[in-house]
Amino acid sequence: MQLNKIENTTLVLTGVFLLFSYYRLGSTTKNVNELWGSIDGSFRTLYIVSMFICALGFLALFIYLNTINKLGPLNKHCLYISLMGIVLFSVFWMPLSIYYLMKKKSKEDGLCFVKVLVLFTLFLVALSAFFVVYELQKVQDKSMLYKLSYYGMCYFFFHVFVLDFTTWSYHFF
């Protein structure tokens, strides 16, 4: 069973909104490089390459979900909800991180609460990615597109948990 038109449209529109929001906030925020924390040099380059690999994994899964009929309705629904979770929770990361930087500079109260919100957002993205991998593991398929989707999303999970949730937050806070 493939994604239906409403699911596809919703996923594409929210994904475009996510990318646009990152672009818009990135181009209008002073000192946007502060979002990197102390990540710089070759590690930052590696991080950026990793983000593109994640995007390829996500795209491979999106194509897989729209071309293969090896998914049961529950499995397809769980994958769709998990992908939406990744996109929707990701929308909050950049504004919350910018808000944290603003509060930090002005030495306002509530800094710890905003920090917890940023970390919780990253955790929810990682949890959603974990559920994608969990659901994909149930699929009985040996096709190359499935393997690209599965291993791409395994890497995606690695990136959002190890690089974003743990490493980025360590360097940012």
Description of the molecule:
With 173 residues, the protein is mostly helical. It has one domain (5-18, 40-172). It contains 5 helices and no strands. The longest helix is centred in the middle third of the chain and has 34 residues, at 73-106. The N and C termini lie far apart (43 Å). The model has no long low-confidence stretch (mean pLDDT 95).
Descriptors:
173 residues; mainly alpha; 82% helix
Short précis:
The protein has one domain (about 5-20, about 40-170). The mean pLDDT is about 95. It is mostly helical and about 170 residues long.
Q: What share of residues are in beta strands?
A: under 5%
**Rg from C-alpha positions?**
17 Å
Query: What is the string of SSEs from the N terminus onward?
Result: HHHHH
Distance between the termini: 43 Å
What does the overall shape look like? elongated
Helices, strands, pairings?
Layout: H1 5-28, H2 41-67, H3 73-106, H4 111-137, H5 144-172
Helix pairs in contact: 1-3, 2-5, 3-4, 4-5
